[in-house]
Design brief:
- By secondary structure, the chain is mainly α.
- It has 4 domains: 173 residues, Tetratricopeptide repeat domain (Serine Threonine Protein Phosphatase 5, Tetratricopeptide repeat, Alpha Horseshoe), CATH 1.25.40.10; 91 residues, Alpha Horseshoe (Serine Threonine Protein Phosphatase 5, Tetratricopeptide repeat), CATH 1.25.40.10; 62 residues, no CATH class; 36 residues, no CATH class.
- Helices cover 69% and strands 2% of the residues.
- The chain is built from 19 helices and 3 strands.
- A 3-stranded antiparallel beta sheet has the order 2-1-3, with no helix packed on it.
- Helix 9 packs antiparallel against helix 10.
- The chain is elongated.
- About 3% of the residues have low confidence.
- Bound molecules: zinc ion.
- The site of zinc ion has 9 residues, from loops.
C-alpha cells in the first residue's frame, strides 16, 4: 500500500508540474485565472492527504483533478490500481470507465485503460465481462500478450478447453514458440470432458491427439483406459496400463482408482497386471496408493495386499501413510488426521504444495509440474 501511495503521490506531482508548466487549455483562456486554482489546489490537497496517510480523502480530491485535465490520466490510472488493490473493484471499474469515456485520451493510455478495466473485472470475479473487455483490447492490439494470457487463464478456469487452445495458438504465433505440453494437457481435458458427456468418439480422438504431443500425458491415458473398459476390451486395457507404467512411472499410481472402479476387470485381469508391474520394478508410491485404496473398503484385504507385495515402509512418511490405513477406531487416529492434511504433491515451478493432484498448478497455472512428495517429512 505504501509503495502504491508513493506511486500515486509521484503521479500527482507530475500532473501538478504539468499544470504549472502548461497552465491552461485554449478553451479555458476566456474563463479567467480562478480556474487555475481549481485545478491546482485539489492536487495540492490530494498530495497533502496522501502524505498524511488519508487515502480516502486523497482519492476524493484527486478524482476532481483528473476530471479537469487529461495530463492527470496517470493519476487516474494509479487511483484505479489503488482501488483494485484494496478490493474495491466497483470503484476501480468506474475510474477506468471514466477514463475510457474521455475523447482526449491518448491511444497508448487507452490501451492501458482497457487492460486495467479487464483486470478489474477479472479480479472482481466477473469473468465474462473481463473476457469481453480483453477481446476489445485485442481488437485494438491483437498481439497484446498479457491480454492473451489472461484470456487463456479465464477460459481454463471456465473449463472452455478448445477456446483456451485457440488462445494458446495465438500466443504461440505472437511469441514464436511452441507450447506442445500445455496443448497436450488441454486436449486431455477436452477428452475427459467428452468422456463425461458420453461423446466417446471425440474423447478417443482428443486423447490420441494429446498422447501424440506428449506420450506420457497421464490424463489422456486414463480416458483411453476408461473407453476400453466401457467396451469390455480387457486386452486393450492391459496394454494401456502397461504402456503408462513404462512412460510415466511417477504418475502411474493415479491409474489405480480408474482400474479399481471396474471391479470385474480389477479382479480378473487388472490386479495381475499391476502385480507384474510391481514385481518388475517395485516402487513405494504404487504400493502405498494401492494399499490405501484397498484399505478404504476392506482393511484386512489391505493387510493381505501388503503381505503379498512384501512392502515395508522405509521412511516416516510411508510409515504414517500405512499407519493411517490400519489405525483402529477408538485409537487417537493421529495418522489419519495427519493424512487428511498432508501435502502430497509439490509444484516444481512455484513450490506450492497440495493434497490432491491437479494437472494444472493452482498457483502458477503451469501444466504437468506437480510431482508426488517423496521421502521423509521435512
Ligand atoms: Zn506452480
Amino acid at each position: 500500500m505504501n509503495t502504491l501511495l508513493l506511486a500515486i503521490t509521484a503521479a500527482a506531482l507530475v500532473a501538478l508540474v504539468a499544470l504549472l508548466i502548461f497552465p491552461r487549455h485554449d478553451e479555458d483562456e476566456a474563463k479567467g485565472t480562478e480556474h487555475e486554482d481549481e485545478r491546482v489546489s485539489p492536487l495540492l490537497r490530494g498530495i497533502n492527504y496522501l502524505l498524511s496517510d488519508q487515502p480516502d480523502q486523497a482519492l476524493q480530491e484527486m478524482v476532481q483533478v483528473a476530471r479537469l485535465r487529461s495530463e492527470a490520466a496517470d493519476v487516474y490510472m494509479a487511483l484505479g490500481e489503488m482501488f483494485r488493490s484494496r478490493g474495491e473493484y466497483g470503484r476501480a471499474v468506474r475510474i477506468h470507465q471514466n477514463l475510457l469515456a474521455r475523447p482526449d485520451l491518448p491511444d497508448s493510455m487507452r490501451l492501458q485503460a482497457h487492460y486495467a478495466l479487464a483486470v478489474d473485472f477479472q479480479a472482481g470475479g466477473l469473468l465474462d465481462r473481463a473476457l469481453k473487455q480483453y477481446r476489445k483490447l485485442l481488437e485494438l492490439a491483437p498481439d497484446h500478450v498479457p491480454a492473451l494470457e489472461a484470456s487463456l487463464r479465464i477460459r481454463e478456469q471456465s473449463h472452455e478447453w478448445l477456446e483456451a487452445e485457440a488462445l494458446l495458438s495465438r500466443l504461440e504465433q505472437v511469441q514464436n514458440t511452441s507450447y506442445h505440453l500445455h496443448r497436450a494437457f488441454l486436449f486431455a481435458q477436452v477428452a475427459e470432458q467428452a468422456l463425461h458427456q458420453g461423446r466417446d468418439e471425440q474423447a478417443k480422438d482428443y486423447a490420441h491427439r494429446s498422447i501424440e504431443l506428449e506420450p506420457a500425458c497421464a490424463p489422456a491415458w486414463f480416458v483411453l483406459l476408461e473407453l476400453a473398459l466401457r467396451r469390455q476390451d480387457w486386452d486393450e486395457a492391459d496394454r494401456i496400463v502397461r504402456t503408462l507404467a513404462e512412460r510415466n512411472r511417477e504418475h502411474f499410481p493415479l491409474i489405480l482408482p480408474h482400474i479399481m472402479k471396474h471391479e470385474d476387470y480389477y479382479r480378473e485381469r487388472g490386479r495381475l497386471c499391476l502385480m507384474e508391474i510391481w514385481q518388475r520394478s517395485p516402487d513405494e508410491e504404487l504400493a502405498l496408493s494401492w494399499i490405501e485404496l484397498v484399505g478404504e473398503r476392506d482393511v484386512d484385504a489391505a493387510a493381505g495386499l501388503q503381505r503379498e507385495l512384501g512392502f515395508q515402509p522405509e521412511n516416516l512418511r510411508a510409515r504414517l501413510r500405512l499407519e493411517a490405513v490400519f489405525e483402529k477406531e477408538g485409537d487417537r487416529l493421529f495418522a489419519r488426521a495427519w493424512r487428511r492434511r498432508v501435502t502430497n504433491y509439490i509444484c516444481e515451478m512455484c513450490g506450492v504444495g497440495v493434497r490432491e493432484l491437479r494437472w494444472q498448478c493452482p498457483q502458477c497455472h503451469e501444466w504437468g509440474t506437480m510431482h508426488p512428495q517423496k521421502g521423509d517429512i521435512a
